[in-house]
Amino acid sequence: MAAQPKPLPIETPNYLQGGGLIGWLTTVDHKRVAVLYALSAFVFMAIGGIEAMLIRIQLWSPENHFLTAGVYNQLFTMHGTTMIFLVVMPLEIGFFSNFVMPLQIGARDVAFPRLNAMSFWLALAGGIFLHLGWIWGGLPDAGWFGYANLTERYFSPGLNLDFWVVGLLILGVSTLASGLNFFVTIVAMRAKGMSYMRMPMFVWAVLITSILILIAFPPLTVGLVFLLLDRFFGTHFYVAAYGATPILWQHLFWLFGHPEVYIMALPAFGMISEILPVFSRKPLFGYPMMAYSIILIAFLSYGVWGHHMFATGMGPVADSAFAITSMLIAIPTGIKVFSWLATVWGGSLRMTTAFYFGLGFILEFTIGGLSGVMHATAPVDLQQTDSYFVVAHFHYVLFGGVMFAILGAIYYWWPKVTGRMLSERLGKLQFWLTVIGFNGTFFPMHFLGMWGMPRRIYTYGAGLGWTSLNQLETVSAFILGLAFLVMYYNLIKSTLSGEKASADPWDGRSLEWSIASPPPAYNFAHVPEVRGRDAYWVMKYGRAGSRGVAMFVAGQVPPVPESMQAPPTEPIHMPAPSIFPLFIALGLSIAGAGLVMGLWRLIILGGVTLFTSAVAMGFEYPSYGQEPHDLEEIAPSSGGIDLRKAGLWAFLGSECVFFASLIATYVVYKSRNVGGPGAGILEIPLTSVSTFALLMSSLAMVLALNAIQQNKKNMMRLWLAVTISLGLVFLGVEAYEFAHFYHQGLAMQTDLFGQSFFTLVGFHGFHVSVGVLWLATVWFASFSPKFDKSRALSVEMAGLYWHFVDIVWVIIFTLVYLMQQVKGA
Amino acid sequence: MKRAFQLISSAMVAASMFLAGCAQGRKLPMTTLAPKSDLADWIYRLFIEVTLWDGLVLAIVIVAFLLAIFVFSTRVGEAAPPSSAASDLKLEVAWTVGPALILLMITIPTIRTIFRSQPNLPPAGALEIKVVAHQWWWEFQYGDKDHVITANEMHIPVGVPIRLTLQSGDVIHSFWVPQLGGKRDVVPGQLNELTFIAYVPGVYPGQCAEFCGESHANMRFRVFVDTPQQFAEWEKGQSTMPTAGAAMTDKAAARGAQVFSNSPCAACHRIDGVSKGYIGPDLSHFGSRTTMASAIEANTPANVADWIVNPGRVKPGAQMPKLGLSGTQLNDLVAYLENLK
Ligand code: HEM
Ligand SMILES: [Cu+2]
Ligand SMILES: [Cu+2]
User: Whose CA is nearest to atom 15 of ligand 1?
Assistant: First the structure.
């Protein structure tokens, strides 16, 4: 079973060659995974674009009958969902971050290559899921932020929203895995000398984006799980009649949704910060401030979600607070805009297509940012929210900002990805069509919004004065569509017969330009040593500030240093391909489909596939049968940080937010409980016993780790067994408690207390079960003769997780059980 | 300084008056730029102020952008470019503090307007109207004992403080009359409020502004801002019981009253003194309304007949079933409804 890594031959072809179809299905190469992401995103981009065109045709005239209301509602929902989750994020995170970031930090792959492949297959599965409703009568149709309680089964009985919920959950897992992967990669796998303050700005952006993903996706997951329970299991998380409030969904969703805006925007900022310096032949202006402002934006983005909810009646105090935080975010954003301008200022400019899009980005994004300030002005937002003014605003941000950056990045990095140049002539044509089409489509929307046109309407009256601007927009949208056709043509033509690209066609500044285009599978024959910011520029020209104009004009760009070009002197171990990532995604999709269609057999089949593939993957290289020092070769770690431990820490951080969301819901809903037994049903003495057992198990866990570190295998096994038993005691008491409540008439569906108690404590119990399984696996594995002191890490990891689960219980026990008692007294 | 600000802002106001003028010229009945209430006016002023600052910043960025590209840089290969630094503390402080000050200038009036527009208690002498949003129509109830119940057309007196309490019968909707003020969501299980004083008599179209399902686009309504006399007359008319069907002079209408009582209509619609349905809009004074089907059509006999024959064709997803009426029965029923003044 344990697949051995095959040393690559000294003369390697580039990463695109060889392997055939199976090679692509089993690939774990970050560059191939990136290309797969790009392919799927380009397909979805066409779909999302066609949806936009149909929307625009329908709005051509008042009372148009081109589309029915139902179809129109599906179209704008899918257009938004597709563009955000299946186009922009896959391109920025799946494609560009995946491809470029490891190259820019001098790594040979990401930290967890198989996890990376799994992310892609899950992303594809999620994308397909969202569209499955098509076969069963319709696509999702509640808008991209699907406000409860319209999404309850009573108001939306169809399967379409079930596929939407499950599809988004799958996409969430995929994205979370990417975030964790990239976070660890950047923290632990930078080439020697690449300190944080020497990282390219794009790497900074990816790092902070990854952190945002880790903390922003859990609230969405929790919100979706509640909705799933409501739709399938009769709970009432969003039903007012039971004392709940549909506004809970809005809080959870926007707690995710606003950081999500920056999950899309930060990578775009990063790309622009790469493109502008290269074509101005100047270092990025104000590098430290650029890095800090990214951090500040990310930090603030977690405190502004309420600005999407000014109209819901949060009251003047909350309105003011969210208005202020939202205003604040404009400050670091302003710093970025001015610093980009200062980067170009005084440069030696080369007017390429990539640079055109970079410059276009600055202006279009600024317009979107400024209308954002208007939305932060809460009273003004009350006129603008849910009107076409908002549609204008977020397209200036997402299209004028993010999409312009993506288009620029395509022109910039395409030669590195494919080894071929794109036509500059077609590129300029595309640029001007895009600028005209984009502004013609979206600028008038500001006016339509001010003139009272609400968003998401499939029809409008004739006497409202909206017709001519709508027609202008539709015509412009077709110009915009044409621009994309030009791009697709350019991409295909380049792939088939484009001019061959050199390693460094733009005279670039960062490390990806120091290796061949397309790069070899192992990226760097010799891992570079970094001696400053703009690492590759420094190698070429001596220092970051030098212009090298004379050399460039004379066609004497310094070549790639000998030391880096030389073929590898010894075989390079690369992670072996694996089919299990694909199987895991398949398993999860089958289980999801089973859930939606109510077929238990499918759920079990999917679950078994998922579990066996996950275990099989766990026993693959490199965990077992691989000597630890081999790991080092793939992962030149800059700080001696262990990848797996860093990954676990990141995961636990994300779990904190997950539990925090559940706990917050519990606290709010307990106090709104109407009817039903309520929290008085809880029994402290019994739970105190199980709490004690769990606390003792943590102690046993410490002793187990201590034992293996001293190579006392038997002692370790003993203490592990104690830990596991105590865990089982805890689970046993919990099972008894649940059954007892059930007999006393408290089920999940009974009341607000019941549903939030069972989800919170139930999810915790699930974590304890996973912990027990994990510890048991370690226990079994310890019978292998190879298991000794050097394997202490696997015990330590399981222990870390176990302690985390225990700490969460202490909080739950205090809040749910003890505080209840205090109140009751 | 203050004068300069006033000058600039009056210039901006003039410019937007021009836009608003277009609004008049081109008939923009739902514009936010021609406020007709105190609430709409506060928002509008704030909007102009922010737009001014935004315009200033945008102008600076555009000028800097043009200078950076066309004046203070060279194309690669041309003569050596002017030297430039990779950072400059003074500049960086400037473009941090400058925008921060501008934002402060925006934040102060913002917070003042937030508190001013959401008074805790209804102003003295306020007229309270209960607004209930349904998929996909609006219900308006006046007075403690709901002595007036109407649908899709709300009448209010000019110059009197109005306190709306907003409730939902099903999902989230949003109440929006652009000329009278900003939106306020209508949330199930939550009592939201909206307070304003309308200044100018007239008819102002409104529309649901939160996506609420299939016919969200058709969930419109109208607000009639009446002179005090008009309002008093209207209120009097609405609170009197409509003439009993049998007593109607129009023969067809009298027969229609029978049709109404004997068909499923009565199960869902209330007519004062006739039926007690509450699922659909109150029809007691249907004939006095100018529009029908949540203000998407004029209230004409032909339109009413069309609606009754197939509600879903007029308003996709409408929760009123086809009733299978036709011929004289249909005509009589329509005549009855139109006679309910
Ligand atoms: C061909 C280019 C595009 C056109 C013509 C276009 C047009 C539109 C229009 C007219 C709407 C409003 C529909 C309505 O409210 O009834 C809309 C909504 C939306 N668009 Fe685009 N769009 C384009 C590209 C994009 C891109 C690149 C994004 C980027 C992420 C995007 C994201 C969204 C989102 C999130 C919504 C809201 C959907 C909802 O209300 O649930 N669009 N688009
Ligand atoms: Cu936001
Ligand atoms: Cu609506």
Answer: A456
